[in-house]
Design brief:
homodimer; alpha+beta; 10 helices
Chain lengths: 200, 200
């Protein structure tokens, strides 16, 4: 069985949302699974000296237009959320808790959380919204959030962020196919060819 | 006759090089021409607070890998040039001179100059290399470079850079289809759909 694709993401990344809606069917066509790896762009940007796209002079207006157009191009519902970007530490910790207990449930939560923020306009930085999304996907929301607030889970997320940095992740989505890195939802066509024809 | 696509570029941009090799056949399939508009990324980056991709911590190694892989994906010869990036003011001024005198010759020069830097490893910041490329494409290289050093041409390039900034160009390639902006060689599939099906 070939290794799963590794999909690094922050719940606040529009291009990670777009890619998250496409990556599983793409991987499945090539007999691959997807392993989702939450990280935090705030920490990543501090290291690499970057800022959120929408805060870069001149680039911000284009970025907002491109988020929406790229979602339409991919056939995915999208509404520019406000506020943007947001802190996603609660959602990321909840994700880690679920991944340890119920991997399939974790995947459902990831998609539901992305959609809540980028299609339904719900502020995912609010723990109550994370609670609602957990409950909606059938998780024991109280138990997950309680676990998410414990030191071992906080440490696990810190370790996950450090690991993503050590692997060279400077933005999301950042996808590894075996050890080949691909950054951005616009690299899905390259991933598709890499998986079908081998390294090029 | 529909308006030509407007293609803003800096000769030092690898993704502009990749797109320059693909944009004319794409445009022609939809009955469009391409109007090339040189700009200078140094000035653009100063305004938007950006740095060359290869100088951003963590991002630089990935960028070099992605330049080469994206060129292979597009089936285009590429060899990472050294030094990179380079100042392209002489090449950009020569381009403006040619565009005023011989538009078809200017297009030939643009392709030859991009290839000299990104496929043949010639340092396009060196006026002698610009001279060689001009001569190779059949231009009167001495006359073009002499004109390129005059105040009116220097002013015309300054005005062209200012105009690109005023239009929101913060990187290259930056392509306008009518008034719709597309940034990056990875947006060519979106441009293709925009031209075939209309705005989406």
């Amino acid at each position: 069985m070939p290794a799963p694709l590794e999909f690094y993401f922050d719940f606040s990344s529009p291009y990670a949302y777009i890619a998250s809606e496409c990556i599983e069917p793409l991987a499945a066509r090539h007999g691959r699974a997807v392993r989702y790896r939450p990280t935090l762009l705030g920490a990543v940007f501090r290291i690499s000296g970057q800022r959120p796209l929408t805060e870069i002079p001149v680039k911000g207006d284009y970025a907002r237009r491109d988020f929406a157009r790229s979602a339409r191009f991919a056939g995915i519902p999208f509404a520019m959320p406000e506020p943007f970007p947001i802190g996603t530490v609660t959602a990321a910790r909840a994700c880690l808790v679920l991944q340890g207990a119920d991997p399939a449930g974790a995947d459902n939560f990831i998609h539901a959380a992305f959609r809540a923020y980028f299609a339904e306009g719900r502020n995912l930085s609010d723990p109550q919204v994370v609670h609602d999304v957990l409950a909606r996907t059938g998780a024991d929301a109280d138990a997950v959030l309680e676990a998410a607030a414990t030191a071992p889970v906080k440490d696990a997320l810190k370790a996950a962020v450090d690991a993503s940095l050590a692997r060279g992740v400077f933005g999301t989505p950042f996808i590894f196919v075996d050890d080949e890195p691909f950054w951005g939802s616009d690299r899905l066509p390259q991933i598709d060819r890499w998986l079908s024809s081998g390294p090029f």
